[in-house]
């Protein structure tokens, strides 16, 4: 139904903000005629999905009016651990009739919800090799109640819902439209939201691997709040206004990654029949309820990224980014200087600083002080940024580790990744793209869903679009539903 429309509003209802993107086809090309962003009503949405359609509907109605979106038909994205399951399957090549029967069986055995009354759909993905004996199919399953909640919210806002979309496919449409020059590359889109992060890998418009992890921007805010003993509201302001990953920390991560030699996870040899053995211990995408299932609490990767003669990542060795006392050895030893400590490094005007008894001489400067203000936005000696980095560095490293796990798992199954692109409101943390690049040794760029799209400057201020572009990825992708067959 939605693909026959010439104008539509894409809706992305997040746990922190609601985003609208109004799209019209002009001369066969998509044009963004309105963009709107507003805070989600408190308590109306969480990581499991939307559960207060009245509050969300009222917020949508106000946002439509505020941003000037006048189109009455919408495509809304559904998300949340209790609201939708999206999975890519490889199945033998078969006729459309056989595929429908097969997918009904696949859907019935993959329902993860307590509510058995579900809505489902599937789509054959674009083929890379038409001679392959198999084909890839993406399927989506959602409880009827979750679908009804979103439809009711849109109706309360005075609009009609033409289709319900899923976030991974919305992002795929955006990627095809705005970055078609990267079509033959394997792109990992990391969509960092408020409570969760989607890590999806695409090539040639095809969703190769979807994954959701329970790490979001709120965890960074909470880390700052707990570390500094301030409210979540104040911590959020500090994160947005003052938090910058220091250039020196980026360089330290790059050096560590080069020394350790991060690479793909070890692969087991697949026996005859194509089934791969040895993945159950750490497969985060298994259908079985094992410890590393992404729909349960995340578990540490049991493999090591350490190179010979190097300490394994994740074991209790001294961490250059840890707070004092973390990861200490059981045997007494000289304290390791914390390069991100809140207190200034003791130095003398005429003599080098003295180390504690039994230790080594401390440097006469802070080696992790950001020296390049133009590149980092941090003036030399900006202790506030260092103090904030201390607060959220553990969360940051957890986030990086989850991205690495996803990419390494994909590599272990024969794939590879050419580039990482960051989207979502959580990625506004300055220095995040550089930090990921340094840790994973892959090109990393901010994702702009408005790239190559025309903007109606009568309704969309260019400065506003540029500032918030990464937050509109899903909203724009759902609106592009009418641009694709």
TrEMBL record:
InterPro entries the UniProt entry points to: ATPase_NBD, FtsA/MreB, PilM, SHS2_FtsA
Region of interest (Disordered), ranges: 264-377
PANTHER family reported for this sequence: CELL DIVISION PROTEIN FTSA-RELATED, ETHANOLAMINE UTILIZATION PROTEIN EUTJ
SHS2 domain location: 8-175
Species assigned in the record: Fimbriimonas ginsengisoli
Pfam (any one): PilM_2
Name of the molecule in the record: Type IV pilus assembly protein PilM
Annotated Gene3D superfamilies: 3.30.420.40
